[in-house]
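Entry 14. Structure prediction run on the chain below.
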Amino acid sequence: MDRWLRWARRIDRVSEWSGRGLYWLTLGMVGVGAFNAIARYLDRYTGLGLSSNMWIELQWYLFSLVFLLGAAYTLKYDDHVRVDVFYGQLSSRGKAWINFLGTALFLLPFCAVMLWMSIPFVSNSWAILESSPDPGGLPRYPIKTVIPLALLLVMLQGVSLMIREVAVLRGVERDNLHQEESRPRIG
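Output returned:
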């Protein structure tokens, strides 16, 4: 089990690295959004022409990156939305079974199907070097490439989650599985 847990920690480090990078992307997204708002108002009153489709699409691309690449990081910290009203009352083993089965039966198959379906979508975008239809817009093929990458990251994090849940089912205390994890919390 120790060897599998080492693999889980490696996967967690990848998710951690990508998640920490998203802190900076989020800051950039907010900065671009603030610039877009200010530039629109300045354009209206001064006619300077600061706003363009490029800046609007850049904000959209940054949001897409945060959303797509943040999924694995969110899964790592179990911060995704749960709708199960019984989960909170379950024992540690009960939660481990729910997490394991949910990952094996729903998360990984969903990601695999979406990955399989996204490859032609992304390949076509690269083949035609797809760009925005709006004047001054950005190319679309690089951002579409992030879709399969994000799905792979979520699948990897799902495997890490399954390894940890198997460890809990085999008697390892849940608290001992997350010793090195400390994420800054806001609020």
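Helices lie at 2-46, 53-76, 92-127, 141-169.
Filed with the rest of this week's runs.
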